[in-house]
Specification:
Blueprint: E1 5-6, H1 13-17, E2 30-32, H2 37-45, E3 51-54, E4 71-74, E5 81-84, E6 87-91, H3 96-107, H4 121-126, H5 134-137, E7 144-150, E8 156-160, H6 166-173, E9 184-191, E10 200-209, H7 215-231, E11 242-249, E12 255-263, H8 269-281, E13 287-288, E14 305-308, H9 309-318, H10 321-324, E15 329-337, H11 343-353, E16 363-369, E17 391-399, H12 405-419, H13 457-462, H14 466-476
Parallel strand pairs: 2-4, 3-4
Antiparallel strand pairs: 1-2, 5-6, 6-9, 7-8, 7-9, 10-12, 10-13, 10-14, 11-12, 11-16, 15-17, 16-17
The structure holds flavin-adenine dinucleotide.
Residues 20, 52-60, 63-64, 75, 92, 114-116, 119-120, 122-124, 126-127, 129-131, 179-180, 184-185, 322-323, 439, 484 line the site of flavin-adenine dinucleotide.
Organism: Amycolatopsis halotolerans
Family: Belongs to the oxygen-dependent FAD-linked oxidoreductase family.
Cofactor: FAD
Length: 491
């Protein structure tokens, strides 16, 4: 490992010890930069103190970049993407856009993962991984065949879908049980045939000026988005080839944004897309896409344009000002939604998105498509328990100075608590909500001041699957070597 363990004197130290979210910084004695599984194993065996695993550094919470961390193991040197013996191998440190480029250019395949180019496979896949192809092709973990994992005692094991006994549990725990709990994943294995992406997609990106939205029209917009997803939730619905994001920026931003993508190879795709747009937008006036929410300007996508899939993926994945701003500070909270939204929630959303004391244009509620092929999988088949949700909500704010922390964090917290007021301030699984996404972690779920529901954080993320995750943890990491604020606790 000579030259591949750095300390505070190294010029690269700050880069490896700060999260994408600049609220989170660690001060470890050393950062390990392994280039092979053997080097990962020797770093784990020789660790002196608390070790944190990092792949892309995008964690919404301080699970990696935390003051209590003594050593960081950074996997970005293990980023190879390859194909041999009927298996695709993806290094845990690979970034999503590199994975898409390599898999598609090399073999014409992909995984149905997330949108943002720089997210690391290590955290993303272990948490489930969904994106614009998920309504068509399921979650990333639905295609996972195996994981190579370095265990707490330094041994390396390959656990697969075909394993039995405790190894089967270890594989299963990596299909949505979240990163940082069981060991260090060095590579993910996906079995052929893997997903063939559409050769072309139709993409629409539109803005609606807030000036055109009163409370009734806002409720129609968000309510229409929810209703369309409820009506088209079945895996065999023609709408399963379509995915979208509705970016409800705060009114001070000036606009809200809608991005939709559909597999252009499906017959009638233009009709399905147009029906979706008119169902959600009704008679609202739209303009070509100006900057809204998570995306930068995307002119030329209104009316919808036909684009090669990889080019569309590149465009949507890289056109994200929130990732290119090195001063980024952020707060996020999530909720799965399994039905249409009640009027009380539509009213609360309008109230918080129009509050006059908010002046940050990067405060927003984003709705992401879910359902379709995702719901064809049994809730216990992988660690992702939420299989009948039709979309997800992400409450978030981005800003860049410490003095704005409390106003922005406060807005996200108050908004969330008001939305789920009847359930103790969190989206307790029930008729409408279905808990939270582990890849959008939220430390407040463990805090009785913000979660008064009586439902613990782990049940909000994992529901009935938590018991098996705990048994797996007890078997493979009984000493709790791999831990963070919301890691799986040994049974
Ligand atoms: C801008 C942005 C956009 C996003 N878009 C999407 C999206 O479209 N779809 C979606 O599903 N999610 C999305 N996410 C969430 C993303 O999937 C998670 O933040 C994910 O955990 C990030 O992985 P990482 O490796 O980059 O993060 P890291 O901060 O490096 O790690 C996250 C967690 O995983 C653990 N971990 C990391 N690597 C390993 C490993 N090799 N072995 C074991 N544990 C590991 C860490 O210890 C930590 O607990 C987005 C996040 C951001 C910031």
């Amino acid at each position: 490992m000579s030259g591949r363990v750095i300390g505070p004197d190294d010029p690269r130290y700050a880069d490896f010890t700060t999260g994408v979210n600049q609220r989170y910084t660690a001060k470890p004695a050393s950062v390990h930069l392994p280039r092979s599984t053997e080097e990962v194993a020797s770093a784990v065996s020789g660790a002196r103190g608390r070790l944190a695993i990092r792949s892309g550094g995008h964690c919404f919470e301080d699970f990696v970049h935390h003051e209590g961390v003594d050593e960081i193991l950074d996997l970005s040197g293990l980023s190879e993407v390859d194909h041999a013996h009927g298996l695709y191998s993806v290094g845990a440190g690979a970034r999503l856009q590199d994975v898409y480029e390599r898999l598609y250019r090399g073999w014409g395949v992909t995984i149905p993962g997330g949108i943002c180019y720089s997210v690391g496979a290590g955290g993303h896949v272990t948490g489930g991984g969904y994106g614009l192809l998920s309504r068509r092709d399921g979650l990333t973990v639905d295609h996972l065949h195996g994981v190579e994992v370095v265990l707490a005692d330094g041994r390396t094991i390959v656990a697969t879908r075909d394993s039995s006994g405790p190894e089967a549990d270890l594989f299963w725990a990596h299909t949505g049980g979240g990163g940082g709990s069981f060991g260090v994943v060095t590579r993910f294995l996906f079995r052929a045939p893997l997903v063939r992406p559409p050769s072309e997609v139709l993409v629409a990106a539109l803005s609606v000026p807030w000036a055109d939205l009163d409370e009734r029209r806002f409720a129609r917009l968000l309510g229409g988005y929810a209703r369309w997803h409820h009506e088209h939730r079945a895996p065999d619905s023609p709408g399963a080839a379509l995915s979208s994001l509705l970016m409800l920026n705060h009114r001070c931003n000036g606009t809200v944004g809608l991005v939709a993508q559909i597999d252009a190879d499906v017959s009638g795709s233009d009709r399905v897309l147009n029906e979706f747009l008119s169902h959600v937008l009704g008679d609202l006036a739209t303009t070509g896409f100006a900057r809204a929410g998570e995306f930068g300007p995307m002119p030329g996508l209104a009316p919808p344009r036909r684009l090669p899939w990889l080019q569309a993926t590149r465009l949507l994945g890289t056109n994200t000002p929130v990732l290119t701003d090195p001063t980024l500070r952020a707060e996020h909270k999530s909720a799965y939604v399994r039905s249409t939204l009640p009027e009380s929630q539509l009213r609360t959303a309008y109230e918080y998105l129009t509050r006059v004391d908010v002046t940050n244009p990067e405060t927003m509620l984003v709705a992401f498509s879910y359902g379709g092929a995702i719901s064809a999988v049994d809730p216990a088949a992988t660690a992702v328990a939420q299989r009948d949700s039709t979309f997800k909500l992400l409450y978030q704010a981005f800003w860049s100075t410490v003095d704005a922390d409390s106003a922005n964090i406060g807005w996200v917290r108050d908004f969330y608590r008001a939305m789920y007021a009847e359930a103790g301030g969190v989206p307790v699984p029930g008729e409408v909500a279905d808990g939270c996404y582990i890849n959008y972690p939220d430390a407040d779920l463990s805090d009785p001041d913000w979660n008064a529901s009586g439902v613990p954080w782990h049940d909000l993320y994992f529901k009935d699957n938590y018991a098996r995750l705990q048994r797996t943890k007890a078997h493979w990491d009984p000493g709790d070597v791999f831990r963070h604020r919301q890691s799986v606790r040994p049974a």
